[in-house]
Amino acid sequence: MQITSTLPTPVRTPLSEIPRPSQQPSLEDIMAADNFEFQWTGQENTVDSFELPAENAPKLQKPVLLVHGFNSGASTWTNMHTWLVRDGANQDGGVISPNSGKVDGEGRVFAMQFSRACNSLANNAAELRQAIDRISAATGSPEVDVVGHSMGGLDARAYIDQGNEKVDHLVMLATPNHGSVLADLDLKFREWGLNTIPREDDPLIRQSLRDLGEVREGNNPNLALLNQNFDRQKSRAKMLVVAGNGRPTLASRYRITIKGEGTVSRESASLPNVPLRNIWGVNHGGVKDHPDALRMTAAFLTDAPLPMDSQDPPNVPADRDITPLKINADGGHIHYFVEDTKK
């Protein structure tokens, strides 16, 4: 039995037709604001529209599993999935979930659907192990490459850290390898009885937020331990990090940077001695959809030379020290009113 993909047919707007403001504010003006609006990861499917690369994807050497992040699902991979299988470049293996049936042995591109959109790092790593074992057994490939967006990259690292893993290449797109302050804020709002996105609340949602929080003393022990063991993970898999830039991002509770995509800073995404590629002008969800990210991912998975890094624009503002004056939430958006400590 062949499992067919349930990913939706994408609707894309050519880059030339995307409306642009007549006058874009400068990066300096953006960073000089006293009210910042951050889009939490629950809205990751609301992203800029991007064209797919004109060329077809290369033939993949191994099965690839696309792993979604917090409060997301397999459908978040529409751009990446569509391009990788377009014109038969690679066989579509469909969606893999704990309840899916027989795995297509001819498949090359699979999309993970965890049993819950919001789950703990430990539970996701366990489900990932089952999925990779099933793909490996069905396809006969001893190794499976993984592409993770956001928390999906952490799930893959947790799986690799446990040993007896089957990952050769791991691509992490907008992954908070050192945590995100927005997860801490979301958790605090829940403790106050105000849920952002998802509206539901239960112990596993709160644990996933703890696993995503900023790594600082005593705050996120699971991710802190994962980072302590990073050399072990790096010895087991080849890794690539792709980070988004150009949106005000909380680098810490008291520092804002433009080197981030609104949810995860470049600093948080980076890992020691791992190749880093930067994409400018994208939000958190857009990192995995941008054509440059698609090309970088495919090149890395096929051991081809990586495309050159996107150059930072001129006059990138330095990080700004701030003092939070007021923080509130409206749906999936968090508003951060600040005072400049340098005034």
Give the gist of this structure.
With 343 residues, this protein is of the alpha/beta class.
Q: What's the alpha carbon Rg, rounded to whole Å?
A: 19 Å
β-strand number: 12
Structural class comes to: alpha/beta
In terms of DSSP E residues, the strand content is 15-25%
CATH class: Alpha Beta
Number of domains: 1
Helix count from the secondary structure assignment: 10
CATH-derived topology: Rossmann fold
Mean of residue pLDDT values: 89
Output the CATH homologous superfamily.
Alpha/Beta hydrolase fold, catalytic domain
Q: Describe the oligomeric state of these chains in a short phrase.
A: single chain
Principal-axes geometry comes out as: globular
SSE run: HEEHEEHEHEHHHHEEEHEHEE
- N→C terminal distance: 66 Å
Helix content: 25-40%
Q: Spans of 5+ residues with little confidence (pLDDT < 50)?
A: 1-22, 42-47
Largest sheet data: 7 strands, parallel
CATH architecture: 3-Layer(aba) Sandwich
What is the spatial order of strands in the main beta sheet? Answer: 3-4-2-5-6-7-10
